[in-house]
Amino acid sequence: MTQPEQNTLPFQALPPEAPLAMPVQDLHAAPDMEGRGRTPSTSPATIGLRRFLVLGSALALTAFGAWRTHKVLDANGTSILGVVMLVLFVALFLWIALAFTSSLAGFVSLITRGGLGLGITRSGPLPTLHSRTALLLPTYNEPPHRVMAGLKAIYTSLCETGQVDAFDVFILSDTTNPDVWVEEEAAFLALRAQTGGENRIFYRRRHNNVERKAGNVGEWVRRFGGAYDQMVTLDADSVMSGETLVRMAGAMERNPGVGLIQTLPVIVGGTTLFARLQQFAGRVYGPVIAHGIAWWHGSEGNYWGHNAIIRTEAFAGQAGLPHVPGRKPFGGHILSHDFVEAALMRRGGWAIHMVPGLDGSYEESPPSLTDVAIRDRRWCQGNLQHVKVLPTKKLHWISRMHMVVGIGAYVTSPLWLVFLLTGILISLQAHFEHPEYFGDTKLLYPHWPHVDPVQAKYVFIGTMAILLAPKLLAYIALMFDRATCKGCGGAIRAAGSVLVETLIGGLIAPIAMLIQTSGVLSILSGHDSGWNTQKRDDGGVPFGVVVRQYAKFTIFGLLLGAGAWVVSPSLFFWMTPVLLGLVFSIPLVVMTSSRDVGQSFKKAGLLLVPEETHPPDVLLKTERAVEEDHGPSLPHDALRALRADAGLLQAHAAMLPAARKPGDPINPDQLVGLLKVSEAPSLSVLEGQLTTKEKAAVLGCAEGVAAISRLPA
């Protein structure tokens, strides 16, 4: 094998270290405010009134709804099931009432062109930066070519602003698959060569990826954070324009009390029907929701873990996460770290703001309901884990509310199921009691015991109106934005898209309810979610897999429908929307996971978004980068890839960690792997002997790499 050429300058994958202390926070002690006041200077002067209007209106609507529901259930007295149903109704109605009042506030903010603040502008001259910002892209077994394509687009866009010198890029790998790891290194070297960013683009792979993404970012802060005023966190599918990054960094310079600025990432790149539904909903409904919460959250905003800029000093000083007591799934390191990091920074006196009015921030959506369910299971565990963080001393009440809302996002699914089953039990009770409430008359709404059917109809209509009002508000707001409306296909096609999304989303909703309910029950029974790579391509889900995963939902729907029909045909027809989604869950999942079906809707002009009809420049750059060849074609196998490219082998060896010292922990996989390498007669034989962990461990030490390079093919 050809020996690598000696360079005049040693290869450097990382800049000089600039350590920054990041102490682990004590959740039971008051934070160190370091002289900062409890109320940030960037908090809106009218924030108290805003919160009173949004929260007060939601409570008033809930009280009115509870009174009307009480009139429905208490027409002829009270019952235990009626009381249970009333309590559940209040809990669930409060949830949708808050979404409605928040969306109403967002509607006003959106049509008045709000949603910025902090001196940020959508257009005009860019601020001149005097600080340094690091772009952090944590990655875990992601396709390297796609990751580097996004980074290339971001870097090129930054170069066009003329202020790329204010930014450095860090690829923070937690990849465990050795083949993907070496492919990452090759793609990193190609990215440097293509962009000329040898002094600004860096790569680091952790060989002990503890605490997942939070540990990955925390390790960077402790090693390199001292050299950067801000850091921008990205996901593997994140894309941000250079102008947006410069405007965000400028806002951080102008507002030294701000700890974090969160953008509203727009979902793009959807090809399957499911992804396109998510994409359209996020693009049309998302701004109304985001503008609403930004309006009344003020300086007590939240953090979504990516596409946000963070003051490194604030993060290091306040966001060192402790382990929560107890066993998994509730104990251990904090999974949904972003909510907690934002809450701790705000607890320390730093302002947390959302700026949904700023364009140029993008992400992708999982391609199917199955992929969302896998991701949702992990999020569910992380959000439920926040129960142990809620008692943290000196948390702002809005920060606690963020966590309660996050918990409620999953708890409401089993509550909806219990609410549904309680209604059936009430109807069943009526079926066996006298007088006969379910006669031969065909009614849309069942006569429950102690139920006024006319009042029930009004409550149902009112509830549905409040539930669907945010979508109507979003559509009206779309009419005020001609460019966005045109990008969605025009007013008529946009209306058709809203109708399609509402209908298909309504059918998917009961399936999602059961998926989340099973996730909650699994977590409560002690099952950990693990750490799975998120699927981002549009590969369809095999039909057999869909049948195995969703047959139980179909069976449940059939049993539920049969039970409803036995109780009363009226109840059966009343439950039809729920039953249809469950009974047809298998074909529904197959259809929504299909790329061909998704593209058919696109050709029909439905579910369009401006980012695909008139793509922004940074997304065009990303598409071109994805299509381009990232250097020489190498074998997918890591062992053969290193042997095929001397430059890659040299760079790989230079990026290895220091050799183990006596007393350091022993890696059993490395010991076994090195033994197998020493005994293998050839590389071909060795390939079939090494496990994935052994292969990664051997490639993670200089001894192993040298031994492999000496083996005959």
TrEMBL record:
Major site of localization recorded for this protein: membrane
Subcellular location: Cell inner membrane; Cell membrane
Membrane topology recorded in Swiss-Prot or TrEMBL: Multi-pass membrane protein
EC number from the UniProt entry: 2.4.1.-
Pfam families tied to this protein: Glyco_trans_2_3
InterPro entries: Glucans_biosynth_gluTrFase_H, Glyco_trans_2-like, Glycosyltr_2/OpgH_subfam, Nucleotide-diphossugar_trans
Record keywords: Cell inner membrane, Cell membrane, Glycosyltransferase, Membrane, Transferase, Transmembrane, Transmembrane helix
Pathway involvement of the protein, from the record: Glycan metabolism; osmoregulated periplasmic glucan (OPG) biosynthesis
Keyword Hydrolase assigned: no
Annotated ranges, domain Glycosyltransferase 2-like: 232-426
Residue spans crossing the bilayer: 48-67, 79-112, 403-428, 458-480, 492-515, 571-593
Enzyme class: transferase
Source organism, top-level taxon: Bacteria
Family: Belongs to the glycosyltransferase 2 family. OpgH subfamily.
NCBIfam families with a match to the protein in the record: PRK05454.1-3, PRK05454.2-1, PRK05454.2-5
Function: Involved in the biosynthesis of osmoregulated periplasmic glucans (OPGs).
UniProt-recorded name of the protein: Glucans biosynthesis glucosyltransferase H
Name of the gene this protein is made from: opgH
